[in-house]
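The instructor's notes for this session suggest beginning with a concrete chain rather than abstract definitions. Hand out the sequence below and ask the class to guess, before any prediction is shown, which regions might be ordered.
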Amino acid sequence: MKTPRFQHIRQAVRLVWTSAPGWTVGQGALVLAQGALPVATLFLTRRLVDAVTVFLGQTAGARDPWPLLALAPWVAAVTVAGWLCRALSALVASAQVEVVSDAVQDALQTKAADVDLAYYETSSYHDQMRLAQAEATGRSTSIVRNLVQLLGGGLVLISVAGVLAATQGLLLPLLLLAALPGAAVRLLNARRWNRWRIQQNAPARYAGYLHLLLTGLPFAKEIRLFGLGGELRGQSRRLRDRLRQSRLALMRRRAAAEIGADALSAAVLLAGLGLVYARMQAGGATLGDLALLYGGYQKGRGAFTGVLGSLAGLVEDSLFIAHFHRFMELPRRILPPARPKPVPNRVARGIRCEGVSFRYPGTDRDVLRGLDLEIRPGEHVSLVGENGSGKTTLVKLLCRFYDPVEGRILLDGTDLREFDPEELRSACTVLFQDFARYQMTAAENIRLGDVRVPPGDARLAAAARRAGADQMIEGLPAGYDTRLGRLFGGGTEPSEGQWQRIALARALLRPSAVMLLDEPTSALDPRAERQLLDTVVQETRDRILLVVSHRLSTVQAADRILVLSGGRVTESGPHDRLIRAGGGYADLFARHVDTQVAGRI
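After discussion, reveal the predicted structure:
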């Protein structure tokens, strides 16, 4: 069901008002003042023309300039007021846009951090995000500006219409007729532009991705190694050419429509000028009356055009601001229960999966099928299996990034869905295989594991020491204050293994009941891996420890090994027993041994 357009306008007004109330009031006052100034100018023009006529009609030697000079301060005051209003209006509008822009960015970031992880794994989410952030700031402030201008223009129009109705009523319908084509064309062009942006959003986003490939650090080595620069530049150039040609075609249609509307308005204006000329020929008014009449027609036409333009602008803005509000209204599916149960600080009974099945949204393949497993406190369990067997998916389910399609996952006998998701995640320490490399200082990289720890706290160094990252960090130019990565000035790029140790220190900083490690030692040498695993096992004597790994030494050290195949646990037990059983694990182990031997040869 589509949200009514007036609701988007109301939401935009509320956003602008709550983020910049003072600047909004200031802008409203200035717009109203600018709306009143044309009426004052109109009457001053009439008085001035009449005064000039009287002055010129007097005898050359007996002319009295004082009636004329008496109007000069008023003319100067209105002129200066106009200059000040325009200057202040530009300043206030710029300040308002800055404040609202910050508020919109904060709202987008808050929403992006709040939505379910599932959204990030769909292209439609990224399309929505791009549309939402493209023009939300400008359109929000534009809606408020158009509403205020609508009020100001309406006041001018009523005043001028009263003057014209009293002097030449035939000009009023002409005034309306002259403004209608431009307003209609603006509305038509807004709809065309919005339709084009929606149609071209995905190609434009892909063009941005190609630009990221060519300019981003993560891809720089492969692009140079494989000589991909020319190929990717060619793709980018062809895509940008198509987008530009499409955009220019739209602009040509827009310009043609505006020219046609202007031609119609000009024809109506000529008709209005004919009425003014006929009135001059009839001699039924003073020069001041005629100046008032002509100026009133021009200002009234401008005011009415402004009113219709503001109305068309509101419609246009609502088309674009709708994308922002649709993004902000994305529903969460992983929700806390009405009365969440407290997450245990210490696990007494362990984790149990009962008949868990799961498929990713938008797919028809079950990654997990009727999965049953149990992990007891203090037990070091390794999870192995071929790629795509569901190992990382299980880690995501244990963090409740997703809910099972069927079955349930219990922590100390309580379904995970009965806990608050944020509280549950705060009780989990996870090191993902694709861990983040924050372009921040070493201390900040570790502290992000638990931001409740104050900067400079001794626990940061302790976590680094347990992860075996302390000597490396202390050897950096500024120690823990050294920026990691080369995206910003003064940074130092750690090796892959050093990054992994820092990520593990980040995980070890958080006190948690459950520790989930996904390939935690993939970048370490065997000796460092052994030391690290000993430390981790020591840290988790009374906690849940689940390690996902393909490394033989990591797997063999586990108390129990779970083999995932076809979305189910097919084997369970210690290494020696599984080898003797001669099943899938033994075959997997043998293949790994052969690969290692071949690698050494």
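Then share the key points. The CA atoms of residues 291 and 557 lie 97 Å apart. The longest strand covers residues 351-358.
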